[in-house]
User: Which sequence fits this backbone?
């Protein structure tokens, strides 16, 4: 069991380039994304669930609740006890209408720790996801841009070769913490959006 969790955490160390920036000012032109999830309504969190290392013997704990400013707060305590070391939240299964060339945009306020974005597809292979790490800035709102073609396929922490992502199959996304640093954590998520390549082209033509 310990070997399995260790290999799962190894995948979190995969480095892929994503863009983290302060939120753009109101006068900056940026592509207008399609909102996948917002957290302003009373039922917004019903679409989300918790999956921690307890499923494999670990002792980390986490929860999601709604902030007063219409955000989702994902918080808890990461524990390395019993060979554990990850906590995560993910959306419940539902087709998201993604396509090739799309970019996921996260609007988050973190605690300075490194998190992982996961995209899930229906697969028989256990613990399978496409993932990439992103940094947060303590107590600062940032915009994290994740091109879908930069996600890496993994299963139990091992890179899965030849498992190219078909964006149309993605039916769940999530955020995971597994930085091997025991202690409390908190990240606020204001929105999760998707921008298509055509959004950027439209913006360029308008600006030109």
Assistant:
């Amino acid at each position: 069991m310990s070997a399995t969790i260790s290999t799962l955490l190894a995948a979190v160390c995969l480095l892929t380039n994503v863009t983290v920036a302060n939120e753009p000012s109101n006068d900056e032109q940026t592509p207008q994304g399609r909102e996948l999830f917002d957290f302003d309504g009373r039922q917004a969190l019903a679409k989300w669930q918790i999956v921690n290392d307890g499923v494999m013997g670990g002792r980390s704990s986490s929860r999601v609740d709604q902030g007063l400013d219409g955000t989702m707060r994902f918080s808890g305590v990461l524990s390395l006890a019993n060979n554990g070391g990850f906590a995560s939240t993910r959306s419940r299964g539902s087709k998201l209408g993604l396509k090739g060339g799309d970019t996921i945009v996260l609007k988050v306020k973190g605690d300075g720790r490194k998190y992982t974005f996961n995209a899930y597809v229906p697969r028989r292979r256990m613990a399978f996801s496409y993932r990439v790490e992103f940094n947060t800035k303590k107590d600062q709102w940032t915009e994290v841009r994740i091109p879908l073609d930069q996600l890496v396929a993994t299963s139990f922490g091992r890179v899965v070769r030849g498992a190219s992502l078909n964006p149309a199959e993605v039916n769940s996304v999530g955020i995971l913490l597994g930085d091997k640093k025991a202690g409390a954590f908190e990240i606020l998520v204001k929105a999760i959006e998707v921008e298509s390549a055509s959004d950027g082209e439209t913006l360029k033509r308008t600006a030109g």
Q: What stands out?
A: The chain has one domain: 2-207. The chain is about 10% helix and 40% strand. Confidence is low (pLDDT under 50) at residues 1-16, 25-30, 200-208.
